Model the fold of this input.
Amino acid sequence: MYPEELVRPMRAQLTGNGFTELKSVEEVDQAMNDKEGTQLVVVNSVCGCAAGSARPGVVHSLTGDKKPSKLYTVFAGQDRDATNKAREYMMPYPPSSPSIALFKDGELVHMIERHHIEGRSAEMISANLQTAYNEHC
Done:
């Protein structure tokens, strides 16, 4: 596990922009069992593509008129049990860090896996998400 001092600013990049951090299995289940509306769940990570593309892209995606009603994040490599539980809701997609999942009324409707993030700009991630918001939110 990474030291908390190292990941604190990475957590804050999302929590400072309206995301609720889920740190336990119980918190994940409680959040995911509230199936009304739309939920964006970001599996955060310390990797370069999380820092350069995923987090900035996710934050920028929320500047449009349509956006998810609930924003959640778990941190891979830090809050393992919560992350593993969140990934169960993202099945059949394999575990991926970072990754971004959009749920509507409890159903997974859009997924961005690590291989969709690597090599893409924050603007591309944002545009991808805004397209999904326009369809589902």
Notes: The two ends are 35 Å apart (CA to CA). The longest helix spans residues 122-136.
